[in-house]
Structures are given as C-alpha cells and as structure tokens.
Amino acid sequence: MTAHPLEPLLRPFECKSLRLRNRVAMAPMTRTFSPGYVPNDEVVGYYRRRAEAGVGLIITEGTTVGHKAANGYERVPAFHGDAALAGWKKVVDAVHEAGGQIIPQLWHVGAVRKPGIGPDPDVPGHSPSGLFRPGKENGHAMTREDIADVVAAFAEAAAQAQALGFDGVEIHGAHGYLIDQFFWEGTNQRDDEYGGSMTNRGRFAEEIIRAVRAAVGEDFTIVLRYSQWKQQDYEARLAQTPEELAAFLAPLSEAGVDIFHASTRRFWVPEFEGSDLNLAGWTRKLTGKPAMTVGSVGLDDDFLNGGKMGMGGDASPQGIDELVRRMAADEFDLVAVGRALLVDPQWLQKLVDGRSDEIKPFTKAALMSLS
Ligand SMILES: Cc1cc2nc3c(=O)[nH]c(=O)nc-3n(C[C@H](O)[C@H](O)[C@H](O)COP(=O)(O)O)c2cc1C
Which of 1, 273, 285, 351 has a CA-to-CA distance to 43 between 20 and 30 Å? Predict the structure, then answer.
C-alpha cells in the first residue's frame, strides 16, 4: 500500500503533555469575538469545528494574562477572572471531545496598548522603555516591580491553563508585543540587567519561562513563539546570523522551552544565506528542541502582504508539496496554519480526502466572522 502523500504531516507527535494525532496546528489568531473579554459559546463552536475536522493542535487566539496593562484590544478574551476561565473550560472540553488538543496563547501587548482601552482605560501601555517603535513613545517604561508583576501574571495564567485541562501553553514572544519589545533593541533601551546585550534583552522572557515552569512542573509543555519580524517593522531582525540566533535561543531553551514556534510570513524562505533552512529549521538545528513552522501554508499570497493581513488571497493548496518535503526531512516537527483554517475549518480534512478543489478561498469576510 502506498503511503498517503501527506503522511509526513499526519504522523503523531509527542512532547511531554502534548500527544498529537498529527503535525498540523491551528495558528493563534485574534478574533475579537469575546464581549466583556469572555469567550462565549460561539467561540467554543469555532474551536470545536477545527478539532472535529482533524486539526491536531489548536493554539488559541492571544489571550491576556492578569496584568492591568496586558490587553490591547476590546473583545479579546482574557485568561483570568472566573467568567473568562469558565468560558475557556468549555473550549477545552469541546476540543478534547473532538479528539484534538489545545494550548492557550498567553499574551501581554506591551506598548501596543493605546489610551482608552479597557478594562481600565486609565492604564497606559507598559513596555521596556515606553517605546512603541524606535522614536515613537507610548506609555510607561516598566519598573523592576512591574516586571515582577508581569512575570507572576504569566506564571499564574499557566497554572490556570493546567488546572482547566489545557495540554500546554504558548507564550507569545513574537510580533513586537511586550516580550518581543524586550528582545528588540529598537524598543529596549534599558541600561539595567534587562537591556543592552542580547542576553540581557532575553532576561525578561527567561524569567517568565522559569516562573511558568515552576508553576506547571516538568511535564507540562511550554511553547515559545518568537519572530524576527515586528508589526512595527517587517524588516527588523533579532539575529543576523546563525551564531546570533544560537546565542539568542540558548538561554531560552535552557530556561525550559519545550517547543519553539518560529513565526515567519512565508515558510519556504531561507532564513540565512547558504542554506535552505527556514527559521524553524535553524531553531531546531541550533537548540535540538522541536520546532514549529508557519507562514502562508495553503495560500498564494504572503501574510500581511500590503499591510492588510493578506486579505483577498486565494487559499489554494499551493506549496503543500514543499511543506511535506521539508517535514519529511525533519527540518521542523510541526506546522501552524492560520488563514487557511480561519476561512475553512475543514481545510485539513479536505486536503487529506483529496478534495482540495472544495477548499474555501480566503476572503476579507472570513476575518469578520467566526465561521
Ligand atoms: C486575523 C489574524 C489574527 C492574528 N492574531 C495573532 C495572535 O493573536 N497571535 C499571534 O501570535 N499571531 C497572530 N496572527 C498571526 C498568525 O498566527 C500567523 O502567524 C499568520 O497568519 C501567518 O500564518 P498564515 O499565513 O497561515 O495565515 C494573526 C493572524 C491573522 C490573520
């Protein structure tokens, strides 16, 4: 019997508390469909549909830790408080009933928070140096006490995730939000132990990872999402060379990350000259830890193409062969799929069944609904 052409994607995967039926994850996507910061039954159904259609791992939309400045947008679900956590419990149970696994993406937006945003509109953005991007001030430069509060908030959220039955956690360290604002020289101009060298800029994340590990124990899977690109500057890079990337990742790996989720806009683009490896491939090679790739899987346009989240692209199965080839070569262990799964909950099932002609094309309308 010949193997299914997607077999490399359909192999199970295990890492501590994660026991996935296949290698396909739903990428974290903010949906702003949680009035009062509480995920409701519509949100439950939205995640359940993806799990029912075979997605191995759901990574939830970014959900904010219990710090007064964590939130940056209305109707984004919180990950603290009885009502929000009760909503998340229903999501977890629904995904498990459908045979999937699920981890929350724990989020603090940092200087992306604007004046007037709830839950307390008087609370300013909190960030390493009060900078949204180089030269653009927004909000408050965090004190050591603020840093300790946020570290504790991540640990508390992770403990809640474990108590609710989630299968691990993802820490959002990407895309120019708080943790990435510490990583990035452009927004971190501190002259204490949290700024300056790469090691110092990574210290905040390291403390969060260690605190989360202490809260959840050895066997609960910790995923760290990071990116070179920032919403403030798509060309920004944390590491210009593999050596710099190794120096960046080593302390984070040592602190307790189990899986690195290397966020790129196009999974097939080599990260450094002289090798085909993408960012996830390099991450796996340099740390020896499992890595997840992401970026325009199943789409023929780039994420954020033209600054509009690639709206209007066509969700054709283009590039799947290349993804399968790289997965088969163990360049990375997992793949996250964003917009293709947002538009069509059955995207994976249709691909597996050879019904790719039935896959719904990506449209702007899909961004506006919880289909
Ligand atoms: C509507 C939308 C919301 C997103 N929200 C988040 C988020 O909350 N956290 C995050 O890390 N990335 C977020 N992203 C980025 C996605 O996780 C993913 O990296 C990106 O869409 C590229 O994957 P794709 O090309 O498969 O869509 C979002 C993307 C979209 C389209």
Answer: 351
Closest atom of ligand 1 to 337 CA is: 26
Phi, psi for residue 341 in degrees, rounded to 5: -80, -20
- State the pLDDT at residue 327: 97
**From CA 349, how far away is CA 272, in angstroms rounded?**
34
Catalytically active residues are 177
Q: Domain locations in the chain? A: 7-367
CA 356 to chain centre: 26
Report CA torsion sign: 251, 296, 368, 43.
Answer: negative
* 144, two tokens: 């050591």
Q: What is the CA(2)–ligand 1 centre distance, in A?
A: 35
* 307-362 confidence digits (pLDDT tens): 444 434 444 445 899 999 999 999 999 999 999 999 999 999 999 999 989 999 87
Burial class (CB in 10 A: 0-12, 13-18, 19+), 273: exposed
Nearest to 106 by CA among 132, 76, 140, 145: 76
The residues lining ligand 1, judged by C-beta closer than 6 Å to any ligand atom, are 27-30, 61-62, 105, 172, 174-175, 225, 263, 294-297, 299, 303, 309, 337-340, 367
Spans in the chain with pLDDT lower than 50? 304-317
